[in-house]
């Protein structure tokens, strides 16, 4: 979705990055624009900690809460796209926009992790937030609760994912801002030590971001990114001697094994190549080991509720692994069947094409692009108009739902580029703000779309020359 629109505080439209228009690309590879307004939120102060500068970072979706785990995953995957598809992003003039989006997150994480073995992991009370339908700049000042982890209250998943984000982003910045990249990498190392030394699951973000998979995947994921950022054998030793991996059929903010396995598939560890192959075999619909549900129209469908995140994560991993297989002249073996890089990129393309309009509903699931795109994204900033102080003073939280949430009208502000949750398992979709499972966008849905869209756009562009 629009990464700019999720910035806390968001930037003004005058400072929003340029983007390529859909006429220049086969399937709308755009880094999203900001809402047509100025979204400036104030400083956020935890009640019990004194003044702490936690300005920045991203709201995860349609609410006004900053969750550390999905935010870090957003930055990690966006960094992966910037690294792996650097030439394509540069060719389309989007690389600097990706760098800006990454840095908005890493600047926040540097502040949130300024103390040793301590990390602020959430800003805002989701229960209170969900009782009010207001834009972030109209939130009541003060009273923004803050959650944190430390040695006594560990949160291995969040610490390790934040380490991965810092390590991956350090690779992004080291060729043109070595000082900043070194700062990020040093912080990544400290956070990894914190994560693996003080182990424990943090459930403070439940029921919204519960870590159902545990923390072993994040530890493997962080060690993997630290190895690629440093090439230090200590991280390979950790991966070989201490990490735990597993065969999975999903890659998401909660489950990172498949991502690490694809990254490690070209190292000396044959196990990870086998596990990466297993992931592909579990997803490909014509594989003998197929496990993942595919809708009648051909869409990966793992769960109701922002299912498009699993679509873009699948497409991204298939795209990356396709390139790695082609580079090393390898194939994926699924029982007595073998699949090459062309099979993988074709499936990735089919998934993205579905989201952008080639589906039974004949509609796009990206706001502002294609045929009959969503107009009622479940998003406070997009649906609430600009309000004067006098008008704002007359609106209570209960009335905010009457005024803007429940009305069956298009959003006041277009959330250009946001990929919404998408259709159900039968390819049916309701463009209603109240249908959050279908219409709510998330940052990680779009961060995972950037790389594969850049790849597909470049491929199509080359074919047309």
Automatic annotation (TrEMBL):
E.C. number: 3.2.1.4
Keyword Hydrolase listed: yes
Transmembrane segments: none
Keywords: Carbohydrate metabolism, Cellulose degradation, Glycosidase, Hydrolase, Polysaccharide degradation
Protein name per the record: Endoglucanase
Family: Belongs to the glycosyl hydrolase 9 (cellulase E) family.
Top-level taxonomy: Eukaryota, Viridiplantae, Streptophyta, Embryophyta, Tracheophyta
Glycoside hydrolase family domain segment(s): 49-453
Keyword GTP-binding appears in the UniProt entry: no
GO molecular function, one term: cellulase activity
Pfam families linked: Glyco_hydro_9
Record GO biological process: cellulose catabolic process
SUPFAM superfamilies: Six-hairpin glycosidases
Annotated catalysed reactions: Endohydrolysis of (1->4)-beta-D-glucosidic linkages in cellulose, lichenin and cereal beta-D-glucans
Active site: 378
């Amino acid at each position: 979705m629009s990464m700019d629109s999720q910035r806390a505080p968001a930037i003004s439209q005058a400072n929003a990055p340029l983007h390529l228009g859909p006429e220049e690309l086969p399937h709308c590879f755009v880094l999203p624009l900001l809402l047509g307004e100025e979204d400036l939120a104030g400083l956020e102060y935890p009640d019990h900690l004194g003044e702490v500068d936690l300005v920045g970072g991203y709201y995860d979706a349609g609410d006004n809460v900053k969750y550390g785990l999905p935010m870090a995953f957003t930055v990690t995957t966006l960094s992966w796209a910037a690294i792996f598809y650097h030439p394509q992003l540069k060719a389309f003039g989007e690389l600097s926009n990706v760098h800006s989006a990454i840095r908005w997150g890493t600047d926040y994480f540097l502040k949130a992790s300024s103390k040793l073995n301590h990390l602020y992991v959430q800003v805002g009370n989701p229960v209170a937030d969900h009782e009010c339908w207001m834009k972030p700049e109209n939130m009541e000042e003060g009273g923004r609760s803050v959650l944190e982890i430390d040695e006594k209250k560990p949160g291995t998943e969040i610490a390790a994912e934040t380490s991965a984000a810092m390590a991956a982003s350090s690779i992004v910045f080291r060729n043109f801002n070595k000082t900043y990249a070194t700062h990020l990498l040093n912080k990544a190392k400290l956070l990894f030590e914190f994560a693996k030394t003080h182990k424990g699951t943090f459930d403070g973000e439940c029921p919204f971001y519960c870590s159902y998979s545990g923390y072993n995947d994040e530890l493997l994921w962080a060690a993997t990114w630290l190895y690629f950022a440093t090439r230090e054998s200590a991280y390979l030793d950790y991966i070989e001697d201490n990490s735990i991996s597993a065969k999975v059929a999903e890659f998401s903010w909660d489950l990172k094994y498949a991502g690490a396995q694809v990254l490690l598939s070209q190292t000396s560890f044959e196990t990870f190549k086998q596990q990466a192959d297993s992931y592909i075999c579990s997803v490909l619909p014509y594989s003998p080991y197929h496990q993942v549900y595919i809708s009648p129209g051909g869409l990966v469908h793992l769960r109701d509720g922002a299912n498009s995140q699993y679509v873009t994560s699948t497409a991204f991993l298939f795209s990356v692994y396709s390139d790695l297989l082609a580079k090393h002249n390898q194939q994926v073996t699924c029982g007595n069947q073998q699949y090459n890089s062309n099979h993988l990129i074709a499936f990735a393309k089919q998934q993205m094409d579905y989201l952008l309009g080639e589906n039974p509903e004949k509609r796009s699931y990206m706001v502002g692009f294609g045929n009959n795109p969503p107009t009622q994204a479940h998003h406070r900033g997009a649906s609430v108009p600009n309000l004067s102080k006098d008008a704002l003073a007359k609106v209570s939280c209960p009335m905010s739902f009457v005024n803007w949430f429940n009305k069956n009208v298009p959003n006041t502000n277009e959330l250009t580029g946001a990929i919404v949750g998408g259709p159900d398992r039968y390819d049916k979709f309701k463009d209603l703000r109240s249908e959050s499972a279908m219409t709510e966008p998330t940052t990680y849905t779009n961060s995972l779309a950037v790389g594969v869209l850049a790849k597909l756009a470049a491929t199509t562009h080359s074919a047309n020359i």
